[in-house]
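PT: before anyone asks, these are the final sequences, not the draft ones from last week. 613 residues across everything. Please model them as a single complex and drop the result in this thread when it's through.
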Amino acid sequence: MEDGRPSAPRFVDADLLIIGGGMAGCGAAYEARYWGRDLRIVVAEKAAIERSGAVAQGLSAINCYMGMRWGENQPEDFVRYVRNDLMGLSREDLVFDIARHVDSTVHLFEEWGLPIFKDPTTGRYVREGRWQVMIHGESYKPIVAEAARKAATEIVEHVVVTHLLPDSRDARRVAGAVGIDVRDGRYVVFRAKAVIVSAAGASHIFRPRSAGEGYGRTWYPPWASGSAYGLLIPFGAEMIQMENRLVVTRFKDGYGPVGAWFLLLKAVATNARGEEFEKTRLPELRERVGAYADAKPMPTCLRNHLMLQEIRDGHGPILMHTERVLDTPEKEALGWEDFLNMTVGQAVTWAAQGIDPRTTPSELILSEPYVMGSHAVCAGAWASGPADLAPPDYRWGYNRMTTIQGLFGAGDAIGGSAHKFSSGSFTEGRLAAKGAVAYLRDHTDRPATPHPHRIAELQGELFRPLDNFQRGRSRITAGSVHPDYLQPMSGLQRLEKTMDEYAGGVGTDYMTNETMLNRALENLTALRADLARLGASDLHELQRAWELVHRVWTAEAVVRHTLYRKETRWPGYYYRADYPKVDDEHWRCFVSSVYDRHTDAWTLSTRAYRPIL
Ligand code: SFD
Ligand code: AMP
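LR: through. Structure below.
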């Protein structure tokens, strides 16, 4: 080819292909090897698994641990907690399944060398809160990755996966995936009998609060490009809870998480007048959401809601009183380590702004929305549940299989089960892998890979942004302005502007309505058409181009789901101004969507919520 990139595809064959070597992907590789000693297990990863995904920078807590060996919690307790936090709506079979297995995952992490805080007198893990344990977690990901590296037959790194491949005889069965090696520009074709998608949730769907040189600064990492959704949606997998986007309370400017401060250090947040608004605003909250206002603990979205009301009423800024709790050198060290382990930028922000947390409170703010399935929200695929727990309409095959034959998901990819966090995502990877190996034992035939002609056609599509750039570059009119192609960054800003202004971003205080959502859809439809004209000057931009494509699919699903759900179920995450109340009678159910690539049409419907306790 004219720019010297290799033209012959590289074929990689696998029994099981795992897309994304993050927490869930590493768990999947580890468990697949246990059940499938003879199998060829391949991980495809766009970065290097030692420092990839949301845990790249490390973490300071493991947020999902029952502590069953000490009788601290039972899976039933966790199911009730998650149901409550999600305003009554959760795939309880999936949640229970994670809860009953997650402790064994955390024990493995400790065995592999992860330092977990221990109480010297009891020998128990030190709790941050009821569900969380504290870790010295800067090297959390390298420790977890080592287990995956030992388990997998091959880890194909620096390959961004762009599309799933269907079986050429059966469009509802998966046959592999394709991607681009971002180091040498080679086209990579994976042929597999079963696939697990664990390619993460998304930041940068909505315009971030940070602008200019801080543009990449978000809480969920900028490299979380919604590929889990961008791969599953266009392939026709059924999705749920895509409207359930996450807004998190964070330390302003540095996005430092608040859990350790609220739960372990017992710091309080007040408005600028020093009032504890979670108490003073309770009567007003009861009027809006009824009994959900008195649920304990208060659901995450409602805590956000109260903070937002305070700020809107001019009572901000909201202050986290670090200065009231850092009264010993040990607590001060813990406060700093919390950030140095997982959000270094927050420690840098303190240093840069001259904030000494022992003497000065820090501002809290609500983040821009993220789309993910593993934190206090649960966007993702509708998946088959475990045999012993799933109600009949929640089960059609193997555990964590999507509505596509042989296609599984884990972590941010799977919908309906929130609060997995890092440990639960790894656990769900293990569960999906066990399901996938059982599937492989029952389906020994290899799916038919698409015809070589189609493989070549896809190659043309994948590299088209490079060709668009080469053809159009001489017509640049000024800087980055050109008539022939759209740069990935311009496309991203266009996406974020639409989502922010019409779909409930920070620009409207998370407010939207039917007219605004329809306007968002018009813009997204135009943007989707323009994606065929993306231009990339090099392989780096080519990856950004495909990340943008995945983000646009994710965004469209968010908008369509938000439009369909005619209520405000999660105030504090987003508001349907035209349906401001929680409406249990009509909407205590999942919104589900399926995209049909043959007709380019979306079908939306509802799925029943079925409590298992
Ligand atoms: O406090 C492709 N999370 C926390 N979890 C905890 O347990 N404790 C905490 O303290 C947590 N906090 C926290 C957390 C995250 C972040 C960013 C911060 C703080 C600052 C959440 C967890 O990290 C999260 O729930 C899990 O990591 C989710 O797991 P998973 O596997 O679904 O996603 P991943 O780990 O990001 O991995 C995805 C992988 O896919 C790769 N990838 N590969 C090939 N092709 C493509 N197209 C791809 N797209 C993505 C990625 O590179 C990655 O390896 S606190 O704030 O709550
Ligand atoms: P965060 O650091 O905000 O991501 O939160 C870490 C964990 O603590 C998550 O499990 C949160 O749901 C939980 N958490 C954070 N703040 C609070 C709070 N004020 N009350 C109860 N749980 C909280």
